[in-house]
Amino acid sequence: MDVSDIESGIDRVFAPVAEAVSSVVFAEVSIGGTSFPLIVGWLVLGALIFTITFKGVQGWGVGHAIALVRGKYGSKDDPGEVSHFQALTSAVSGTVGLGNIAGVAVAVSLGGPGATFWMILAGLLGMCTKFVECTLGVKYRVEHEDGTVSGGPFRYLPVAFARFGKAPSAILTGVFAISIFFFGAVGGNMFQANQTYAQAKNVTGGDDGFLGSDTAALIFGIVLAVLVGLVIIGGMKSIGATTGRLVPAMAAVYVIACLTVIIVNVDKVPGAFGDIVTGAFNPEGVTGGVLGVLIIGFQRAAFSNEAGVGSAPIAHSAAKTRRPVTEGLVSMMEPFIDTVIICTMTALAIVIAQPQSFLDARASAAVGETPNPDGVVLTSDAFATVVPWFPEVLAVAVALFAFSTLITWSYYTQKAWTYLFGRSLAKERTFQVVFLLFTVAGSVVTLSDVLSLADSMLFICAFVNILGLYLLLPIVRRELKEYWTDRSEGRLVRADSVD
Q1: 3-state DSSP: the chain helix, strand, coil percent, rounded to 5?
Q2: Inter-residue contact 269 to 93 (CB < 8 Å)
Q3: Helices 289-305 and 114-139 sit at what angle, rounded to 10 degrees?
Q4: What is the rounded CA–CA span in Å between residue 395 and residue 392?
Q5: Residues 44, 302: contact at Cβ < 8 Å?
Q6: Could you tell me if 295 and 305 are in contact, meaning their C-beta atoms sit under 8 angstroms apart?
Q7: I want to staple 385 with a disulfide (CB 3.0 to 4.6 A). Which of 69, 353, 476, 486 is the partner?
Q8: How many Cβ atoms sit within 10 Å of the Cβ of residue 369?
Q9: How does strand 34-37 pair with strand 28-31?
Q10: Which long-range contacts (CB under 8 A, 24 or more apart) does 118-121 make?
Q11: Residue 37: beta bridge partners?
Q12: DSSP per residue, 170-182
């Protein structure tokens, strides 16, 4: 039996389950002739309510958030495992990935340049969702005897749902833990490993290159698993130290490539911005008109920055701080970096470069057809219009994005594992072995229906998590009021840096 037989056999088993769960999780309603996933509405509505509740904290609080990231407040002796900066980069590494490259390209080809406008707006709103969930992640975290911490939804959801009774609280939190574990093992691990291998194979000759065989895929997977293992065995401190270096480097590589495309075509920049604004309110060739392009933009932002999903608070809860609001403020930078900067850079590069694959997709949309573009190819083609070897740069960026996402999701998944099975060194090592076996498997097999089910699991997390956030809003309001009063009256501890 070869690899393809194994893949098809596993997919046949998971296909009916994936279809049934996806039909519920991604249930749609028709608005103005356009299908709108209810889960996206749940995320965007939550972000809007949180923004109104906290009077746009993502605007007036961002200056203080930057000061916190730079280590201007707090003490080296504060409880926690990593600095604000390391917690931020760890969380960013979990969201910045293929969605910023492939997903944005697809969104712009389907919705036109105007999708970028609504994507940015949704990203800005999502900053407040991150503020709420990450404040709670630190507020209810538990510090263990060895100095490590456990926080995030596994700690605040039981508090939120306690009013429903012990059993409903345990069930809802358990559903969250199982869902995030499944997504982490498959979507946050196997998929990333698979795409890393696929890109490496693509730039080394495809099926005819030295990475074209099943044996090469297996060896690649083992090497990748070893590299991941060297990082994750050290826990959050090791992950934070790695992402603290990797995330700025990978973001710089990708943004420089996008900027190169933009600078070479600088004369087209004003027109591109004009197309983005005009296309947002007067789109052409988009089913549902303005509402259609709005939905496409909101979908991409929601799927990209994961605001409200409950994953980021797990990383942010490890930050060194005595004041939960500080990490809530810092976490607001995550959707800004992910959606407002990196996603927008991708969209701009494609809109400005106008590669033939993008024009073909837009032409199909203009005559009422639904194009099915390969997002990575669209972005790669945009890069190639400037420098022929830029697709190789994209391959490096994809590999870095996938690796950083993989190691961060190992931490999220491990916290779900310890919630479900208990915490001990032996259990954590068992989890790490299991996780790395998934990494190897991901390099060898592509399980489409398993991945579809994993995506559904992530958004089950979003439903449960945001429900908990609503219930705990008064706690966050009190924390913010007390902290901002202390800031205004000069009672905050200042420091040059926090290691």
Answers
A1: 75, 5, 20
A2: no
A3: 40
A4: 5
A5: yes
A6: no
A7: 353
A8: 11
A9: antiparallel
A10: 118/280, 118/293, 118/294, 118/296, 118/297, 118/298, 118/301, 119/297, 119/298, 119/300, 119/301, 119/339, 119/343, 119/344, 119/347, 120/297, 120/301, 120/339, 120/340, 120/343, 120/344, 121/297, 121/301
A11: 28
A12: HHHHHHHHHHHHH
Residue with tokens 């809003």: 473
CATH number of 3-69+77-488: 2.60.40.2310, 2.60.120.10, 1.10.10.10, 1.20.1740.10?
1.20.1740.10
Q: Do 163 and 171 meet the contact criterion of CB atoms below 8 Å apart?
A: no
User: Which element (helix H / strand E) includes 303?
Assistant: helix 289-305
Residue type for position 180? I
CA angle 258, 244, 455 (to 5 degrees): 70
391 within 8 A of 384, measured Cβ to Cβ: yes
Q: Rounded to the nearest 5°, which phi and psi values hold at 88?
A: -65, -50
Q: How far is CA 160 from the centre of its chain?
A: 24
Q: At 57, which amino acid appears? A: V
pTM equals 0.84
Among 339, 301, 288, residue whose Cα is nearest residue 28: 288
Any idea which residue has 């669209």 for tokens? 378
Rounded CA gap, 131 and 129, in Å?
Answer: 5
Domain ranges of the chain: 3-69+77-488
> Which token pair is 131?
């503020």
Rounded Cα gap, residues 269 and 254, in angstroms: 19
**499 residues of the chain, pLDDT tens digit each:** 565 666 666 667 667 777 888 788 778 777 766 677 788 888 889 999 999 999 999 999 989 889 888 888 777 777 878 888 888 887 777 777 666 777 787 778 777 888 888 888 888 999 999 999 999 999 999 887 777 788 889 999 999 999 998 899 999 999 999 999 888 888 778 878 877 777 677 667 766 666 667 677 788 888 888 888 888 787 667 776 776 677 777 778 788 888 888 888 888 888 888 888 888 887 765 655 676 777 777 777 777 778 888 888 988 888 888 889 999 999 999 888 888 888 888 888 888 887 777 777 777 766 666 666 666 677 778 888 887 777 777 777 777 777 888 888 888 888 889 888 888 888 888 988 988 888 888 777 766 666 677 778 888 999 999 999 999 999 999 999 999 998 888 777 766 444 4
Residue whose structure tokens are 């690899």: 3
Amino acid identity at 38: L
